[in-house]
UniProtKB/TrEMBL annotation:
Keywords: DNA-binding, Transcription, Transcription regulation. PROSITE patterns: HTH_HXLR. This is DNA-binding HxlR family transcriptional regulator. InterPro entries: HTH_HxlR, SCP2_sterol-bd_dom, SCP2_sterol-bd_dom_sf, WH-like_DNA-bd_sf, WH_DNA-bd_sf. One of its GO terms (molecular function) is DNA binding. It comes from the Bacteria. The keyword DNA-binding applies. Residues 17-115 form the HTH hxlR-type domain. The keyword Transcription regulation applies. Gene3D superfamilies: SCP2 sterol-binding domain (3.30.1050.10), Winged helix-like DNA-binding domain superfamily/Winged helix DNA-binding domain (1.10.10.10).
Length: 232
């Protein structure tokens, strides 16, 4: 019996709309989250499993294969001495960051949004999404941010925020902790001083300046919750 008769046909919307056709790929469960976790650089299969603890190895393999076949993800082998195989977004795949920003801001208005653990990439993307130039005003600052062992250089100037992987040069402060602790400072209404006293965040340098930075991320107003279904 041929492969064509034994292999199940991939479901498709069979729709000429570009959105429908790309949803054939990124609409699969976990696909967008795999893309999110590759947004700031290549990762090994084991790294992706660690960042997405709810995904099985089999499903992750399927999603990576589908994204690779669609030209969104590529894999390559690192040069010696590492020699590991890694997955990374293609140039076109990386353009999808705008999707995460738009969907993230829209989703933050959900009346049912609830606190839950976030990955490092989730926290970084949320800052790129929620930053308010109006709140920042004339703020100028540079921070070395370390989240769960990963380093990022954070800069605010002229009402614009940049966050890039890597070491910061001449930062005003060095901040380290977990993504969830950072989120508490950004969106949970908890002060940097209180989190530092608790040991949840480590701040070396100007804590007041970092507090002002954390105040630059207002959440959008929640959408109204649905009312009760009418009785018929």
């Amino acid at each position: 019996m041929s492969d064509a008769t034994t292999r199940p046909r991939k479901r498709s919307y069979d729709d000429g709309c570009a959105v429908a056709q790309i949803m054939d790929v990124i609409g699969e469960r976990w696909a967008l989250l795999v893309m999110r976790e590759l947004m700031f650089g290549p990762k090994r299969f084991t790294d992706l499993r660690a960042d997405l603890p709810g995904i099985s190895a089999n499903v992750l393999t399927q999603r990576l294969e589908g994204l690779e076949a669609a030209g969104i993800v590529a894999r390559r082998r690192l040069p010696p001495p590492a020699g590991s195989q890694v997955y990374e977004l293609t140039d076109w795949g990386a353009e999808a960051e705008i999707l995460f920003r738009v969907i993230g801001r829209w989703a933050a208005r959900s009346p049912f949004l609830a606190p839950a653990p976030m990955s490092v990439n989730s926290a970084i993307l949320s800052m790129r999404t929620m930053f308010s130039a109006e709140r920042a005003g004339d703020l100028r600052c540079a921070f070395a941010l370390e989240l769960s062992g990963l380093e990022f250089a954070v800069n605010v100037a002229d009402g614009a925020l940049t966050i890039e992987p890597g070491r910061a040069s001449h930062p005003d402060s060095r901040i380290s902790g977990s993504p969830d602790m950072l989120v508490r400072a950004l969106y949970g209404g908890e002060s940097v001083d209180a989190l530092a006293a608790e040991g949840a965040l480590r701040v070396e340098g100007d804590a007041a300046l970092f507090q002002r930075y954390c105040d630059c991320f207002p959440l959008p107003e929640r959408a109204p919750a649905p009312g009760p279904f009418p009785l018929i």
